[in-house]
Amino acid sequence: MRPEDAAEFQQRQIADCDLATGVAAGTRDSFERLRTVFAYGVLCYDVYTMVGDHALLIYEQALRDRFMEWCAGTVSFRGPQTPDVSYTVASYDDVKKRADRMMRRRAKLVVGTHVIEFNGTLHGLRRWARTAGLLRGRRSRAVEEALAKLRNHVAHPSGHHVDTPVGAARTVRDLAELINQLWGQATPDGRLYPAPLRREIAVLSWNSSGRTRMEPAGALTAPESLKDQDDEYQHLVVRAIPFIPGSRWNDEHWAEFDTHYETTQFPTEYLWGPGTRAEARTWLEHERPEGDSADFTDRVFLVQDHEHLLPPMRPAVAAGLPDNQRVGIWHAIRADFPADAFVHVRDSGDRSAGHARHPGDCPACSAEVLGSGSHDDALRAAAAALGPIVAVQLPPARLPTSTFWPERP
What we know:
Structural class: alpha+beta
Number of helices: 12
Largest sheet: 5 strands, antiparallel
Shape: globular
Distance between the termini: 60 Å
Order of helices and strands: HHHEEHEEHHHEEHEEHEEEHEHEEH
Helix content: 25-40%
Strand content: 15-25%
């Protein structure tokens, strides 16, 4: 590249990393300094390492600034056998000093209806942000852990390292997502904290020979070029993430759709079917369903283990099962994707794998255990996380190409 082209290219790598309106001034100023300095990496390669390292330090600054806004000048602690006590704090240094004293008394920070161990360090701040619901997503939790380890390496170096423009840009972009999420703004097409995805009305079709297709609902009103062959097809109308070539959000498992089990990667909602093309067209013209937006992070799944492990199920669907289908051991799992919940339950039987078997975040994967036991036990655990669950009863229907999951009865 020519020098001016190289400079413009590098600036574009982080040009769209804008922070939310309400972000604290200190965090915003530190972040904007990073964006300004990043462009000078074309003149001095070491600047990329400096930018990447300093971005990791701003990680903690952002959490501190957000904590001060959250506590609004007052922090409360609860001792082992003492009532809550509140203290006035004017700066985060006051918070850190108070946290140190309260830790020695085995007192915990009060966060809404929860209490957590809090020492005022990055570890405590991360736990507070998660408990307060400011950070979301199960897979992003692992990235937060990695960023914390990198930050500690930068703050307490044990050797020399060199970062690349790609690595520095990735760190800055991740930092922007984290800051915006702390202040309540998800990132469109984000890697860590993506905004809800748009779902459109789609038609899933299959024939007796096993051929499947997914098409927008509008295709049913188009000229029927495949009319002869289409007589063999059965159709389901769903609300789903549209398939866009090259998109990171394409659902590779759309052909696994099952009304009873969560076998697609992203939330796919059953609306009608199965039936003929003419019946589907009539239903669409009468009902005129519309698309919506769906957040796929932090979903709650119920996994049934009866004779063999079954695919994850939505709590509302599990609540609508007849008594003879509620047998076996049930697990309530919070995860971003159904495969994450399934793999956790499958591998938790192997003690050497290190998966959590009791309620809490799993140290070995991106899942959180909410509870296990009978069908009613799992539903109660799910309700504690979601609120009241309204049972739904859906007709059994699935595409014949479903091979990703174990065979179901």
